[in-house]
Design brief:
Number of strands: 7
Shape: elongated
Strand order of the largest sheet: 3-2-1-6-7-4-5
Number of helices: 3
């Protein structure tokens, strides 16, 4: 009887360990990938850069991104119901100014625009600290 239970336990254990080898992916997918039934999760995309044009009447925004040598501009038609944030507050397209940094956010299908935000460009904090340090040094010398 004990021998039969031992053989049965070894058999169950070996089948459990061999099952991933006989799966479609050879046991290489993670459990979360297997549970999604072969569908990969799509990442939501965003397009951000410097705002170079705004047309309130047409509801369009042109954003330029890239380095000096390889700049690319793209114009986006914003849906009428899209949420617009300007400097972290709700706003309208009329509040958006050329030269601001803008970001167009998309739904998971990566074609439907889900949001737009714009903010004023502000220098990095470490530059301000450096300037303040230089001013303090000048004051100390006087």
């Amino acid at each position: 009887m004990n021998r039969l239970l031992m053989v049965l336990a070894v058999l169950i254990l070996s089948v459990g360990l061999m099952a991933p080898a006989f799966s479609e992916d050879g046991g290489k997918k993670s459990s979360s990938e297997r549970s999604s039934k072969g569908e990969k999760k799509k990442r939501k995309k965003a397009h951000s850069g410097k705002i170079t044009a705004v047309n309130v009447e047409k509801g369009t925004v042109t954003i330029e991104k890239g380095s000096k040598d390889k700049k690319k501009s793209k114009t986006f038609s914003l849906p009428k119901n899209v949420k617009i944030k300007v400097n972290k507050k709700e706003g309208t397209l009329a509040d958006v100014k050329i030269g601001m940094t803008g970001s167009v956010k998309f739904e998971s299908d990566n074609t439907t625009i889900s949001g737009f935000s714009a903010h004023d460009y502000k220098p990095k904090a470490h530059k301000k600290k450096k300037e303040n340090k230089e001013e303090k040094e000048d004051e100390a010398e006087e």
